[in-house]
Amino acid sequence: MARKVAGDIRASKTILRWSVRRVMVTTYPDLVGSIRVLEKNRFVCVGKTPAGEGFEEGTIAYALEKPDAHRSR
């Protein structure tokens, strides 16, 4: 599972080089290895996901934002 997460993270970082400002992923709180990989790659926990809004019940969300995402244009 950790290899898949690592591959997905590499893809996320590539996407951030384009016009995307934020990548959001979800995982289950008991998948400690996946969470470790996310945090190691600067993803930040943004809390529990809202049930019934396109997310699996019981998951938590992590986000990676482009460094300049908060700058005003």
Give a quick precis of the structure.
This protein has helices spanning 2-16, 32-40; strands at residues 22-27, 44-48, 60-65. It is of the alpha+beta class and 73 residues long.
Structural commentary:
The protein is 33% helix and 23% strand. With 73 residues, the chain is of the alpha+beta class. It has one domain (2-65): 3-Layer(aba) Sandwich (Aminopeptidase). Helix 1 runs parallel beside helix 2. The protein starts with a helix and ends in an 8-residue tail after the last strand.
From the N-terminal CA to the C-terminal CA, the straight-line distance is 39 Å
Major sheet description: 3 strands, antiparallel
CATH uppermost class: Alpha Beta
Report mean pLDDT, rounded to a whole number: 78
Q: Tell me the CATH topology.
A: Aminopeptidase
Estimated share of beta-strand residues = 15-25%
**Number of continuous helical runs:** 2
Tally the structural domains: 1
Low-confidence stretches at least 5 residues in length (pLDDT < 50)?
none
The Rg value, from CA coordinates, equals 13 Å
Q: Please trace the helix and strand order, writing H or E for each element.
A: HEHEE
Relevant terms:
alpha+beta; 3 strands; 23% strand; 73 residues; globular; 33% helix; three-stranded antiparallel β-sheet; Aminopeptidase
Fold blueprint:
Blueprint: H1 2-16, E1 22-27, H2 32-40, E2 44-48, E3 60-65
